[in-house]
């Protein structure tokens, strides 16, 4: 265990994470030569779509050995649309390595990932890549990082010889650097590290400089607390700083016993109690599945981190609170697309189990029934709100399409599949246009399923603004037993957000209790159908107060029909109106585009509710706007921000649509009904 390290390369797209992984594997002797994105020969980007697009879409697991230490390395995608792949890596590693593109400086994605890593208690390290890019301002980049993350961001090494190499600043007291001073950087590191231990502070004050080899314990404590965020400089292209980064990983980053423990909880909600997992191979097994994928050769694959105990091939494990164990028949260590069989995995190891259909994302595996209620505190995933209505091109393929979509959704916690009853559409929700495009490409290229897509219909609602009564007698005679039912009811508006309420105030058996479920069914059918534009009616109370029945002819269908028509009549008299969904937006964009953005939002009936200045010349805007005005908004945002803007949205509330929208929607519904 002490000879195991794990880290995830995270950060913005185009920061060079995949090529840095190649450089580390090559330098560690795992590759004869680094792979190429252009040739599609990298270890981590093995998916056909990744090769075609030449950037990462999935997190990939690799490993190598350096100085007798096994290192598990995760390469994660950098686009905001792929957060469902990158964020779970934080559950698998002890260190989050945020890779910064020296040519681009600090970007919003790096800010976001640093915050998420801090929230999960991961040790953090900043790796400034592409230090040899033309015109880079490395002192400026370091100043950006320190301005954003504080004085705890200190360089472990500095570029030297025109960025052809780097010089260590922790173990070395002197050296030649392209900027700053090795001596000053060394002093700052030692002072920052000793601050977490009073005994070392006293020694430092009495003795002056301390030997860095004595500072391992306070260094690990400083990393756990976030009191030190090391900065390393590297060029994956030339190899400058790669050997030094390997040494940092092995000599300075935490082993499984030194990192902050995972946030296991027993129980749910406010009653959940924290549970300490201990990186001890002799204890019962605790492992967490942070990634699920459908492999074309081995089927369903659950990729996991062992937190406690020793996971062995052929042992019996339980999934969550399941009572039936499964046998670990196939245990692997992953190297990109390769599955290397192993006999056991220790605390700190990342491994994979194959051919267990019950495995799912976020599952906790264990071998003790006492651990059945354990789970990890949930990650803060962004809400998938970019929807696409999807249907099979070939009639009869609906069930197959649903099953394929479900498999793809199971692999990505930021995809959501829903059948929207209000619009009768199957809608898949993702984080953006690229996210959904990748899903469609997988359906077509990997599963040979042709589909049709369109923007989903906006889920309007209807309500009423006044009270009204309605009554209807349904009477049908056809020679034999007839149908008879009469319903008297009134409708009244409720406060926004209260939904639908049905109240039975019938006295004296005017409508026998046995028919009241049929009456309620008819009411809900009328509310679901709407009266303005065919959308469900909400925030309404329907009170049935009287009616009539016949001892022979009254039937459920008669009262359902009478209640439906009585409700429809009452709703028409209660001043109905159309409610449109209002969404809250959070947008990140270059500050220079702020004026164009706010003007565009105003033209879409949007309202800016707040702005914040972010580091690196970026701004965040919070706003409210009608959902109907934001269909396909990413394309417009790209035009306003030169392709750099991103946004997320979530349903805020419903409010009355403007009169012109109400009239237009009512006319469209009327034409549809007549057609």
TrEMBL record:
Q: Which gene encodes it?
A: fusA_4
Per the record's keyword annotation, is Chaperone included, yes or no?
A: no
Q: Where is the Tr-type G domain?
A: 2-257
This molecule's function is given as: Catalyzes the GTP-dependent ribosomal translocation step during translation elongation. During this step, the ribosome changes from the pre-translocational (PRE) to the post-translocational (POST) state as the newly formed A-site-bound peptidyl-tRNA and P-site-bound deacylated tRNA move to the P and E sites, respectively. Catalyzes the coordinated movement of the two tRNA molecules, the mRNA and conformational changes in the ribosome.
Q: Does the keyword GTP-binding apply?
A: yes
User: Which CDD domains does the entry link to?
Assistant: EF-G_bact, EFG_mtEFG1_IV, EFG_mtEFG_C, EFG_mtEFG_II
UniProt xrefs under Gene3D superfamilies: 3.30.230.10, 3.30.70.240, Elongation Factor G (Translational Gtpase), domain 3, P-loop containing nucleotide triphosphate hydrolases, Translation factors
- MF terms (GO), sorted A to Z: translation elongation factor activity
What organism, scientifically named, is this protein from? Ideonella azotifigens
Give the residue range of the signal peptide.
Answer: none
Transmembrane spans = none
Q: Which UniProt keywords apply?
A: Elongation factor, GTP-binding, Nucleotide-binding, Protein biosynthesis
* A Pfam family reported for this protein in Swiss-Prot or TrEMBL: EFG_III
Its protein name is: Elongation factor G
């Amino acid at each position: 265990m002490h000879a195991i390290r794990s880290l995830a390369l995270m950060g913005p797209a185009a920061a060079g994470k995949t090529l840095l992984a190649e450089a580390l594997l090559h330098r560690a002797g795992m590759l004869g030569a680094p792979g190429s994105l252009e040739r599609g020969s990298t270890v981590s980007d093995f998916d056909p779509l990744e090769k075609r697009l030449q950037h990462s879409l999935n997190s990939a697991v690799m490993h190598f050995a350096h100085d007798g230490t096994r290192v598990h390395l995760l390469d994660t995608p950098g686009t905001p649309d792929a957060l469902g792949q990158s964020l779970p890596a934080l559950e698998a590693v002890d260190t989050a390595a945020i890779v910064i593109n020296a040519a681009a400086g600090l970007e919003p994605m790096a800010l976001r990932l640093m915050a998420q890593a801090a929230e999960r208690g991961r040790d953090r390290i900043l790796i400034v890549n592409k230090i040899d890019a033309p015109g880079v301002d490395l002192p400026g980049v370091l100043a950006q990082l320190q301005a954003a993350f504080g004085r705890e961001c200190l360089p472990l090494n500095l570029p030297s010889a025109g960025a052809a190499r780097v010089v260590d600043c922790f173990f070395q007291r002197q050296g030649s650097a392209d900027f700053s001073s090795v001596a000053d950087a060394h002093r700052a590191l030692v002072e920052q590290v000793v601050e977490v231990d009073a005994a070392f502070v006293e020694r430092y004050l009495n003795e002056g400089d301390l030997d860095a080899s004595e500072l391992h314990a306070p260094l690990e404590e400083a990393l756990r607390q976030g009191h030190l965020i090391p900065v390393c400089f590297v060029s994956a292209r030339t190899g400058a700083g790669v050997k030094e980064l390997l040494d940092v990983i092995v000599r300075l980053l935490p082993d499984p016993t030194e990192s902050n423990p995972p946030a296991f909880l027993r129980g749910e909600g406010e009653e959940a109690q924290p549970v300490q997992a201990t990186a001890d191979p002799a204890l019962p097994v605790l492992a967490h599945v942070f990634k699920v994928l459908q492999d074309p050769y081995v089927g369903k694959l659950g990729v996991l981190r062992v937190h406690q105990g020793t996971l062995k091939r052929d042992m019996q494990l339980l999934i969550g609170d399941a009572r039936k164990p499964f046998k670990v028949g196939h245990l692997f260590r992953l190297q990109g697309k390769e599955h290397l069989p192993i006999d056991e995995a220790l605390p700190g190891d990342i491994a994979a189990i194959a051919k267990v259909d019950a495995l799912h994302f976020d599952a906790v595996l264990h071998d003790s029934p006492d651990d059945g209620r354990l789970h990890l505190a949930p990650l803060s995933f962004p809400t998938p709100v970019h929807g696409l209505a999807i249907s099979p091109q070939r009639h009869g393929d609906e069930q197959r399409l649903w099953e394929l979509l479900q498999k793809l959704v199971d692999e990505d916690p930021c995809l959501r599949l829903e059948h929207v009853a209000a619009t009768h559409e199957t809608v898949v929700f993702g984080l953006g246009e690229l996210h959904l495009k990748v899903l469609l490409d997988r359906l077509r290229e990997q599963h040979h399923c042709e589909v049709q897509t369109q923007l989903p219909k906006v889920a309007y609602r209807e309500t009423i603004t006044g009270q009204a009564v309605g009554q209807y007698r349904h009477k049908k005679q056809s020679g034999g037993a007839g149908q008879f039912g009469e319903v008297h009811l009134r409708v009244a508006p409720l406060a926004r957000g209260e939904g639908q309420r049905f109240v039975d105030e019938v006295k004296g058996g005017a409508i026998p209790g046995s028919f009241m479920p049929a009456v309620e069914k008819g009411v809900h059918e009328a509310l679901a159908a709407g009266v303005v534009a065919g959308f469900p009616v909400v925030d309404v109370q329907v009170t049935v107060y009287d009616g009539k029945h016949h001892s022979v002819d009254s039937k459920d269908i008669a009262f359902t029909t009478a209640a439906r028509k009585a409700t429809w009549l009452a709703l028409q008299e209660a001043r109905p109106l159309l409610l449109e969904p209002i969404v809250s937006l959070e947008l990140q964009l270059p500050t220079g585009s702020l004026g164009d953005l706010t003007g565009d939002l105003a033209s879409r009936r949007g309202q800016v509710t707040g702005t914040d200045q972010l580091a690196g010349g970026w701004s965040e805007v919070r706003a409210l706007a009608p959902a109907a005005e934001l269909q396909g908004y990413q394309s417009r945002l790209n035009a306003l921000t030169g392709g750099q803007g991103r946004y997320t949205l979530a349903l805020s509330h419903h409010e009355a649509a403007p009169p012109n929208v109400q009239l237009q929607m009512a006319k469209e519904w009327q034409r549809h009904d007549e057609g």
